[in-house]
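**Folding the chain**
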Amino acid sequence: MRLTLSPNPGEMLLRFVGDRLTFRLNAERRTPEAFLRTNLGRGPILHAEILQEYYHELRNWDSASNPQPSTLPPGTAWRDIPMRWQNDGWELELTLTEPGFYDAKAYIVDEHARQIWPDGPNIAISVHPNEYRTNNVIYCAFPRMFGETKTLDTTIKKSDPLVENLEKQQYAVIPPSGKLRDVIAEFPHIFGTLGCRILHLLPVNPTPTTYARFGRYGSPYAAEDLTMIDPALVEFDRRTTGIEQFQELTYAAHCRGGRVFLDMVINHTGWGSTLQENH
C-alpha cells in the first residue's frame, strides 16, 4: 500500500512552544487504525533517558557514592497517539508544549494487524521557547578587547624600547586584557541603544600562555579548563572570584532582559588542559 505523510519523512522542522502541528497520513484506502509514533510532549522522560545512557557509559562508575538514576526501559519516551480519519486521510494535530528536539512518524495498521510505514526517516522537530520567535539580535563580544584599549588599533606599543628588547629575546609581551566588568559597563549601549537581546561571548576560559600558546595572547579556543574563567578577564577583588564576576555579568544581562550565549569548543582543548591531564 502506498502511503504519503505530511510533513514529509526526513523533513526537519523549526517550531515554537504554543504552535500547533498537524500530521496527515494518506493511504489508498481506509484502514482500521493509524498512529503517530513520537516523543513529543515527553521532554522530562527523554531527558532522563539521555542522562541514563550517559551514566551507563561513564568509566570507573562508582555506584556506591554516585547512585544511578532509576532504570528506564529503552524507548520509554516514545508513544503511539491514535490518529483520526477525516478528509479521506488520517490526521492528528498536536500543540507543542516543551522546548527540545523531537522525532515523529505515522503508520497504519491494516486488517491483519500489520504495521505499514511510509518510506523515509523520521520527521525531526526542533521546538524553541515561545519568547524567542522574534527580536533575537546577537551581539558578539570578545572580552579581551574591552576596557581602556578598546578603541586602539593595536594594544602593543612598538616604540617602547623595553617591549622591543623583550621581543628580541623571544619573550611575548601580553598587554593588559579587558575585563568582564568592562563588558558589563557597555550593557546600556548593547542592550539599550543597539537593542540587542543576546550576548554571545567568545570563549572566557583560561588558555595556555607558556607552552603551545597560539598567538600573542593564547588562543581562546584552546581552553585549559572549560569550567573556569580566564584570570586575565577578572579584576583583582578580595570579595569575589572569577566565577562570581562571571555571574555578575550574566545577572546584569538578565536584568536587562538579555540572554548570554557561551562559545565553547568541546572537541579539542589547550595543551595541558584539565581534561588532558586527568583523562
Remarks:
- The CA atoms of residues 40 and 102 lie 6 Å apart.
- The mean pLDDT is 88.
